[in-house]
Design brief:
The strands form three sheets. The chain has a five-stranded antiparallel beta sheet with strand order 1-2-3-5-4. Strands 6-7-10 form a three-stranded antiparallel beta sheet, sandwiched between helices. The chain has a two-stranded antiparallel sheet with strand order 8-9. With 330 residues, the chain is α+β, with helices and mostly antiparallel strands. It folds into two domains: 109 residues, 2-Layer Sandwich (Phosphorylase Kinase, domain 1), CATH 3.30.200.20; 203 residues, Alpha-Beta Complex (Aminoglycoside 3'-phosphotransferase, Chain: A, domain 2), CATH 3.90.1200. It contains eleven helices and ten strands. Helices cover 43% and strands 14% of the residues. Helix 6 packs antiparallel against helix 8.
């Protein structure tokens, strides 16, 4: 390895290309954006391309949390097994994800777990929206159908797909209502954020009370939908047929779909109308919006404690969500 934070070279990834395609690797380009895994475009000697995902400690920019989340649907753990389980769920729901070419857990090809997937070359929905809003609108409408298909796939307990054996902490939390798990997490994150952001510290007690009040009126649920967890326009690629293709799926879980919709509202803005669904619990949305904004302050601040390169972008997320958090008190 040479270069930045755990960056692999063309030489390092040659064996991956050979195993996946039986061809020689001409070049490997590390793509921007990944925080928990390395993402590389692999260009073969015949000009075809694929995408390599590499999971190892060197590719993970996240420092450990002071008070690590141990829930089965918010934990920071990542890796090939989460990717495979999520990929299967989306495929069975009829939602497009990049096709898998290779899965390797052996760590013999590179130091880490590796997946090679189809290279969807149409770029992100985020970039398409800036370049061709009309075309992006058509993709958004198709994404709306995909979101409804995801959320229509349900089961009677919350958590990550493929969770066979839960840790003792996760087993304890599995017996708690989801909204209580979210409340406990939000209060922990509020404590961390208040220790670092004076504007939040000044209203910490009001925010804590608001979280508790919004949680207290919610009745526990026994049915949960499949959610992506970070479904923004940067996590949607566009294929040659203008179909949306979901990436960065390792945070997928079964959860209240209001959690996803709070995030979709935030990330898609005006475009959210194409993704909106009826029948959402307004009280849950109010509670999850506040919990989500706190999460989007605490998480990026923690990421900035490490060597993550796009510091300006993360600081912008922090600042935006501080404002959104404080606005919840108006």
């Amino acid at each position: 390895m040479t270069g930045g934070h755990g960056q692999l070279t063309t030489e390092d990834l040659g064996a991956v290309a050979g195993e996946a395609y039986g061809r020689r690797l001409r070049s490997a380009q590390r793509l921007t954006g990944g925080t928990r895994k390395g993402v590389y475009r692999l260009t073969l000697d015949d000009g075809t391309t694929g995408i390599g995902y590499v999971w190892n400690d060197d590719e993970n920019y996240w420092p450990a949390a002071v008070d690590a989340d141990r829930s089965s649907f918010f934990a920071d753990d990542t890796g090939i097994d989460h990717f495979v389980a999520a990929h299967r769920e989306f495929t069975e729901a009829g939602v497009r994800v990049p096709g898998i070419v290779l899965l390797d857990r052996s760590r013999r090809l590179v130091p880490g777990e590796v997946a090679v997937v189809e290279d969807v070359r149409g770029g992100s929905l985020e970039r398409l929206a800036g370049r061709d809003p009309d075309r992006a609108g058509a993709v958004l409408r198709r994404l709306g159908a995909a979101v409804r298909a995801m959320h229509g796939r349900t089961r009677n307990h919350a958590g990550r797909p493929g969770n066979g054996t839960l840790s003792p902490d996760q087993a304890d939390q599995a017996d708690q209502p989801v909204e209580q798990v979210v409340l406990d997490r939000a209060l922990r994150q509020l404590a961390v954020v208040a220790s670092r952001v004076d504007r939040i510290a000044e209203v910490r007690d009001r925010l804590a009370d608001t979280l508790r009040e919004r949680c207290a009126v919610l009745a526990p649920r026994t049915r949960f939908g499949l959610i992506h967890g970070e479904l923004g326009p940067d996590h949607v690629l566009v294929d040659d047929h203008d179909e949306p293709v979901l990436i960065d799926v390792e945070g997928t879980s079964y959860l209240d779909i209001e959690w996803e919709h709070a995030f979709l509202e935030l990330r898609f803005g005006e475009g959210y109308r194409h993704l909106a669904v009826g029948g959402l619990d307004v009280g849950r949305l109010r509670f999850y919006r506040l919990a989500l904004h706190l999460s989007l302050v605490e998480g990026p601040l923690r990421l900035l404690d490490g060597p993550f390169p796009d510091r300006a972008g993360m600081l912008a997320i922090v600042e935006h969500n501080i404002g959104r958090t404080l606005a919840q008190l108006d």
